[in-house]
Every structure is written in C-alpha cells, then in structure tokens.
Amino acid sequence: MATTVADILKANNLSITDSRKSILELFKLSKGALAHADIEKKSSAQFDRVTIYRTLQTFVDKGIIHTIPTADNSVLYALCKDDCSAGHHHDNHVHFICDSCDTTYCLDHVTIPSVNLPEGFTQKQTDVVVSGVCKNCE
Amino acid sequence: MATTVADILKANNLSITDSRKSILELFKLSKGALAHADIEKKSSAQFDRVTIYRTLQTFVDKGIIHTIPTADNSVLYALCKDDCSAGHHHDNHVHFICDSCDTTYCLDHVTIPSVNLPEGFTQKQTDVVVSGVCKNCE
DNA sequence: AGTAATGTGCAACAAAGTTGCAAATTATTT
DNA sequence: AAATAATTTGCAACTTTGTTGCACATTACT
After folding, report:
1. Contact at CB, A115 and B117, closer than 8 angstroms
2. What are the structural domains, with CATH classification, of chain A?
3. A29-66 pLDDT, tens digit each
C-alpha cells in the first residue's frame, strides 16, 4: 500500500492540516533535500513563514524529516525513509551535495564508514557530507 | 621556531592589525572550534561586529581557518594545521561535537574513511561530523 | 615623513528565526 | 450532527545574524 501524507501524519499523532499535507507533499515530490527557503518559495503564497518554521520543527521532532549539516551554514531538510517514520529514527546515511547544481542527495544505500575515535570519546551520531559533482552534472 | 600570529599574517600577505592578531590569538588559545558568537563575546568590546565577520572571512579565504558544518546550523571555525597555511589547504579531517559540553574538536589524527559513491558521482570534499561524549565529559 | 593601499567602524539594511496571543481549524465528546 | 476541547495558524513585534557603502583610521611602502 502506498502511504499517503495523511497516513504519515496520522501515524505520528499529528492533526491533518493543509500546511502539513502540502509541505510533506513537497518533500515526497522532491528528489533531494530542501532548504527552508525552497519551501518558503514554493508555498509562501499559501502559508505563513512562521507556520513553515513550526511545521518543519514538528516534522523533525517526530522523525518524519531530518536535518543535514552543510558547510555553507544553510540547513537542509530531507524526508526520512519509511523505517524511520515507523519508530526507530536513524539518519545515519551519507549526504551528497553537488557543487554544480546544488542538489543534495541522500545516499541511503551508502553505509556510513566507521570512524576510529581516540580513547575516551563515545560516538552517538555520525554525519557524512560529501561534495562533488553528481551524476546529472558531469 | 614558534610561529607567532604576526608570522602567520605575514605569510599570507595580510596587514598586521590589532583585530587580526587578537582573533587569531583566540584560535590559538582555544582547544576546539569557535562559533562566531564565541568570538564576538570574547572580543566584542574591542572590535566591531562587522570587523569580526570580515576578519573570519579573510582567514577562511587565505586558508588560515576553515569552517565546520554542524547539524544545528551554526557555523564553526577552526584553525588549520601548519601544513594548511603553508599552501595546500586540506581540511579533510573528522570533527567531533560533544553533546554534553558543546565543544568541537578537530580530530586531526583520525583519517576520513573512504566512501563508496554510486556510479556517476565524483567526490571532491568529505566532511565527517561525529557527535557524542568527549573524553572530559564521560 | 609622506603617499598609496588596506582595514575599521558606523549606519542602515536584509535575511533568518523566535515568541505571545487571538482567531481559525481540527479532533473529540455527547 | 452540534458543541466543546485541543491544536494549529497567522499576525505583529522582536531578536539575532549577516551584508553593504562610505568616511575615517591604520598599516605598508618608497
């Protein structure tokens, strides 16, 4: 069965509202990650800036989307895979940012390599951000 | 010979000014990385906000410091190692952010693991940010 | 010491993000 | 299905963060 955006909201105990449905739909349609600014542009006519902020924050809290660290200080958001939204949240996958077209990809099938930390350091989460040229731009 | 901050500035064809010396000194004294806000707090009485922005930008351009991507959308700056400032800039090392004390470490001796990208993707730079508990906080 | 080049501070602005509160929408109860 | 309770939204006002132009000051050069 194809999970609709409404299903996802329901599964996370969230009220089903227009803004949440639209913004979630945006993520489903987008291949890569979205910046807050992207979302604002694509729906600012419809929704208030503040609503978008709060919606994104809610989605992050519920584990529906996750943030991606970038070198240029912009926050990116991307949809978590199905097994995330089901409960055990894990966004330990590699992100790829194309220098040419600026698209951010979640490379879900690339496993995070293990990192050998010095004595006394405990690892909880690892973010790997690779930049370069994507398959569409080379 | 111990390289002074003035030496570093000279080596990069930068005028030696009070603000640059002080800010560079801050980095030398700090073990971890610094956020812009940190620098502003520790020297805002002395220097204008704008000067700090411009100084940091200059240092990044010259390869004296580098930026670190973080998940919470704050930019961190850290001193590059000596061989960076000598010319061939490389900040491909692992960064560690302590969840407890919020200090960011540059783990220069931990090598970046190689990542197997899908067909058609070309890798240029890799940033690895690990979060967890550092050796002072456990 | 004097001139050219560079850097700094101020002001004004733009962008990004936050908070409180009343109105509107969604969910729940009867 | 209507009424109430619980959420959510939009507005306004504000804070923080970052940028730009320009006059003045400082540093470097001869």
Report:
1. no
2. 5-132 (1.10.10.10)
3. 887 788 888 888 887 678 999 999 999 999 999 989 88
